[in-house]
Amino acid sequence: MKSKLVIGNWKMNLSFEEADDLTIAIQEALAEINLQTEVVICPPFPFLELVTDLAEESNFNAGAQNCSQFENGAYTGEVSAKMLADLGVDFCIVGHSERRRYFNESNEVIAQKINRLMDQQLIPVVCCGETLEERNAGKHFEVVEKQLKETLFHLKKEDFEHAVIAYEPVWAIGTGVNATPAQAVEMHKFIRSLVEKKYGTEIAYNTYILYGGSCTPQNAIELFSSEDVDGGLIGGASIKSGDFVSIIEAAETAVNDN
Ligand code: PEP
C-alpha cells in the first residue's frame, strides 16, 4: 500500500505570528511521529520562508498556493515558479476553485502555470471538481474530465508522473459538507481510469489522487481508507494544529490498517 500525502492549504489566513506558532506546533507534533505520510504546508506567500526554513529540519515540505503563468518580467504582483524554487518550495497548488471563481482562472492559464512549475521541477497539485449544479445535472464526470484534459494531459509522461491531482468538489469546500466516501471513490476511480488511458497502468497506480473538501479529524480515516483515495488537501482544518495533526494521524492509520 502506498503511503499517503496530506497537504494543508492555509489560504489567506493568519498573522505572521500565528503562522510562526502554527508551523512550530505542527513541527513539534510531527517530530513525535515516525511518519510515513508525506506532509506539505502551503502558507500565503509572505509566510513561505518561515515554512521553508523549518521544513529543512522537519518531516514536512513547503508548498505555495499559486504561481504566475509567466516566466518573469513586468507582471506586477505576480510570483514566478523560479522564485518559489529558489526559496526551497517543492509543491504548488494550481487551479483551486477559489482561483477559478474569484480570479477567472481558465484551464488554459492553469495549463501554463503547470508548465512553469515543470520548468522548475516543482510538483503541481492540480485541483479539479464540479459545482453542485453540475453534479445535480449529472455532469460531474464530464466536468472533471474536461478540467484534467485541458490543464494536465498535455504533459509528457516524464513530466506527468510528478504531478498530484486533488479532487475537490466545489460544494464541499469550506461548507462542512464532505463528499461521502462512496462519492469520492467513484470519482477517484474515474480519474485514475483517465490517467491510465492516457499514461498507462503504472503511472495511473503511482499518481497521487487526493480528496479535498471539508476534511476533518472525524471523517478523515474513513475517507483516507477508501479505495483510490491517496490522502487529502485540507483547508480550514489545516490552520488548527491539533486538527491538522489528527488528520495526518488518520492518514497513518489508514495506511497501516490496509
Ligand atoms: C480547500 O480549500 O482546498 C479545502 C479543501 O478547504 P476545506 O478543507 O476548508 O473544505
Sequence-ordered SSE layout with sheet pairings:
Elements: E1 5-9, H1 16-31, E2 38-42, H2 48-55, E3 61-64, H3 81-87, E4 91-94, H4 97-102, H5 107-119, E5 123-128, H6 132-136, H7 140-151, H8 157-160, E6 164-167, H9 181-199, H10 201-206, E7 208-212, H11 217-224, E8 231-234, H12 241-257
Parallel strand pairs: 1-2, 1-8, 2-3, 3-4, 4-5, 5-6, 6-7, 7-8
Helix pairs in contact: 1-2, 1-12, 5-7, 11-12
Low-confidence stretches are none
Overall form: globular
Elements, N to C (H/E): EHEHEHEHHEHHHEHHEHEH
Number of helices: 12
CATH architecture level-2 label = Alpha-Beta Barrel
Q: Identify the CATH class.
A: Alpha Beta
The spatial strand order of the largest sheet comes to 1-2-3-4-5-6-7-8
Bound ligands, named by name, code or SMILES: phosphoenolpyruvate
Describe the structure.
There is one protein chain. By secondary structure, this protein is α/β, with parallel strands linked by helices. It has helices spanning 16-31, 48-55, 81-87, 97-102, 107-119, 132-136, 140-151, 157-160, 181-199, 201-206, 217-224, 241-257; strands at residues 5-9, 38-42, 61-64, 91-94, 123-128, 164-167, 208-212, 231-234. Strands 1-2-3-4-5-6-7-8 form an eight-stranded parallel beta barrel, surrounded by six helices. Strand 3 (61-64), helix 3 (81-87) and strand 4 form a beta-alpha-beta unit. It starts with a strand and ends with a helix. Bound molecules: phosphoenolpyruvate. Phosphoenolpyruvate (PEP) binds at residues 9, 168, 173-174, 212-215, 233-237.
